Amino acid sequence: MIEKKFIEEPINKYKIMRFLENSLNHAWIANIDIQRTPLATRITLETLNPGKVIGRRGRAINTLTEVLKNEFKVDNPQINVVEITNPYLEPRIVAKKASKYIEMGKKVRAIMHFLLKEIMNAGAMGAEIVAAGKIGAKGARAKTLRVYAGYIPKAGEPVHYVRTAHLNANTKSGIIGVLVRIVPPGTKFPDKQTDQKVDLPKVVQSAEGDV
């Protein structure tokens, strides 16, 4: 019974997170944290739009709480909503913006350059955006585009300091995956000096918001 409980808990946690992501897609959720305590299950939602999570007179958040209780059997769910202050330091928000632009038919490389510029201007110490799939007209071959700036560790303990998100853009040509990695401002690495100014390529510096 103990082993079964260990297996079921991560699965149920994953289902809850997927439910919250889908239900609150319009609120631009950046992060979801679920912590169980002896008295309650604390769920923290970091979002661009707290009002859409809470709803008028708290109706939306009350509905979420009831669903978590009744459908997911969550013990005493306590939902805390936190407004994020800089969306360009949140990989999930950046990946979602990129996906939306791609689905609108904007040029993928131009989107990546613009978002990379905004991330670095927000103070990130390093960032990487990767788009992979059938990029181009219908019938185009699958390929991968990558833009990056600053320091992005790929192996060892420093990898844990990197915030990562992956989302898909659904286009007429097929699915394009968008991977975003960001090293937040102030991150300290034991084996790397990261307080140097990052010079962005001219093509990134000149990227415009209308892509």
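[next item in queue]
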Amino acid sequence: MIFKETKLKGAYVIEIEKLKDERGYFARAWCQREFQEHGLDACLVQCNVSDSIEKGTLRGMHYQDPPYAETKVVRCTRGAIYDVMIDLRPDSRTFLQWIAETLTPDNGKMMYVPKGFGHGFLSLADHSMVFYQVSEFFAADYARGLRWNDPRLNITWPGEVTTISKKDQEWGNFDLALLSPLNGMV
């Protein structure tokens, strides 16, 4: 795997290394040892799958408060998504900065979303399937989110949002007071 740290400290885009032959290719998509060698959280306790039926489906911007803050490794296994992560660690020099990457099965890219980051994505094709590996079990009482179109976050989405859950529509705009549990996570 090829680990590329982004401008957001601790956040990575990871690419698979395709070993090709006449049959196609083989690649490693997860290796605990390689993650540990890069200083990344390699404790993954749960895997989740989502299928966004229609192009234009938005999921996010989600995170969990400590002690259930989670690291995510996100990949697209069908279709295409525009995957966004935003640094929500108030003590970070890149606080409120975001990055995005288009993930597809063909490009084999994954996003390593560390604890203290918000995460969401927009489906770029019908039936886009996303596979998430996470470091914490889901804890509904600690689940949080930010409004996907909050002007303070200024996330540039590459297409029209046509489908979004009621819960994701109701997340509030940025409020620093809500992020206080994420202090010290840098």
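[queue empty]
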